[in-house]
Amino acid sequence: MTSPLLSLRGITKSYGQVHANQAIDLDVAPRSIHAILGENGAGKSTLMKMIYGVEQPDDGTLAWEGEPLTFASPVEARRKGIGMVFQHFSLFETLTVVENIQLVVPGKKADLVERIRTLGRDFGLEVDPLAHVHVLSVGERQRVEIIRSLMTDPKLLILDEPTSVLPPQLVEKLFDTLRRLRDGGVSILFISHKLEEIRAICDRATILRGGRVTGHVDPREHDAHDLARMMIGRDMPEPMPAAPLSGGERRLEIIGLDYRPEDPFAVELSEITLSVRAGEILGIAGISGNGQSELASLISGEIVLPKDQRDRIYMMGQDVGRLDAAARRKLGFAFVPEDRLGRGAVPEMSLVLNSLLTAHSLNLVRHGLIDKDKAKAFTDDCIRQYDVRTPGAEIEAGALSGGNLQKFIVGREIMLAPKLLFVAQPTWGVDIGAASAVRRRLVELRNEGMAILVISEELEELFELCDFIQVLYRGRLSPALIARDTRSEDIGRYMIGAQLSPEKGTA
Ligand SMILES: Nc1ncnc2c1ncn2[C@@H]1O[C@H](COP(=O)(O)OP(=O)(O)OP(=O)(O)O)[C@@H](O)[C@H]1O
Question: 6-232 and 238-332+418-507 share one CATH topology?
Fold first, then answer.
């Protein structure tokens, strides 16, 4: 290849006992879109953090345009021409687009507005520079993040799972932008778990497994199965077939629920009606920000209904609208929140203590004292069954990679054997091997009679899992669609607020 823009040799980084990166060699060519592929905990984020100057390697060398390089901070990385767009956006909701950009890019407001408009036109990143961020969709917010990085004139842009926040219609648009950037001379490092996307957009791929490079390939020359094998070291398991619907009792019922939040940035919910029976999976599709987190809080009991709202939310046949989260759990309800580090787990606590947060009901606490052996055994079981990659149960939750923490939380909740399980974004950030294992387990539990409610932005996932799908758009739910009779384009149209053709099957 032409001489590389960025070259890594022998990059090594450990966190205590964990060898996150071992002797990594990587060359990023100018004008290329280069995928970094690997299952959860393979070391992708660690490697990107070293390139962006957030972390320092223990060993190895970096070279930038042939010159040796040491970055002590992201500021220096940006100065050299490396930009990064993180998965979790860092914009201030109450400021406008240009005000957000002004926080990191020097310049007069009027000039910046003009540059934002020009970049928007040149790269398909249209967004109103004077709009407040809180009115922007997720896709628009991502565009703001990309524009902000582009304003420092990067030669290399790192994108961490950029498509996980986007509805299918916008993924193509992002790809178009990335191709234009590449053609304009920017190289892109693209982290993703989605193999088909990598095949569609990337011209090179480096695959990591267990902190080591297992291959440098042209992803267009390999099918998704090949790539998956390199990534996880074995073939992908087949999806679990769903048994016919059993028509079991209603375990969750929401009837005409209206919710007017006090927070002006929260989404108002109107006439929410849904029901989940034993032995079935209902999926809520939709782009996040359309009321998902408000609905999740109302179902989990994090928000309880005001006194005058009765007969709106039933669980296991009881009106639970006024019950708090703990009381709902006592009825046999379990919940995996979307926000893993805020609500799903306490990062500073060990996995054992994190088990106790919800699993204390399984006799892990006796007479107010923790039964340490039982709690440890429960945690070890969860780690084994759900393939949580960690040196042990005593490790702090915050030290796990994102996907591994998600596996741990999903496993912990499933092990409570609830009657009704509610999972928000079940495989968010989870690699394909582990994601397919989590999905198989959910279908298995459904076949055994559990009632399951899933909120997901991933349509393919919903189609693999669900019997029925409802779409949440601007605080309203579509009718329940029978998943096997519905096409993804129909769901897609509901997701952006367009109506579905009337002949499609509804439940
Ligand atoms: N600050 C830290 N302290 C301790 N261990 C860490 C820390 N950061 C990462 N690790 C460990 O390093 C390994 C690699 O993690 P990394 O986040 O790079 O993986 P990843 O490939 O990005 O995973 P994912 O797809 O789940 O985000 C994991 O075993 C993780 O637990």
Answer: yes
- Could you tell me the distance, in angstroms and rounded to a whole number, from the CA of residue 154 to the centre of ligand 1? 26
Q: Tell me: the pLDDT tens digits for 18-42? A: 899 999 999 999 999 999 998 888 8
Secondary-structure percent of the chain, ordered helix, strand, coil, rounded to 5:
35, 25, 40
Pull the structure tokens for residue 32.
Answer: 């290329």
Please determine, for residue 394, whether its predicted confidence score (pLDDT) is greater than 60: yes
Reference 276, options 320, 246, 306, 242; nearest CA is 246
The residue contributing the CA closest to ligand 1 atom 29 is 41
Measured from the Cα of 48, ligand 1's closest atom is 18
Pocket test for ligand 1, best of 15, 84, 390 (most atoms within 8 A of CB): 15
In this structure, CATH architecture of domain 238-332+418-507: 3-Layer(aba) Sandwich (3.40)
Residue range 146-155, pLDDT digits in tens? 999 888 889 9
The DSSP 8-state label assigned to residue 193 in this structure reads: S
Query: Between 168-183 and 138-150, two packed helices, what is the crossing angle to 10 degrees?
Result: 10
Residue located nearest, by CA, to atom 6 of ligand 1: 399
Kindly indicate the confidence band of residue 142, based on its pLDDT and cuts at 50, 70 and 90: confident
Domain assignments of the chain as residue spans, ordered by start? 6-232, 238-332+418-507, 345-413
CATH number at 6-232 = 3.40.50.300
Which pTM does this prediction carry? Answer: 0.68
- Verify whether ligand 1 is closer than 6 Å to residue 54 (CB atom): no
> CB of 283 closer than 6 A to ligand 1?
no
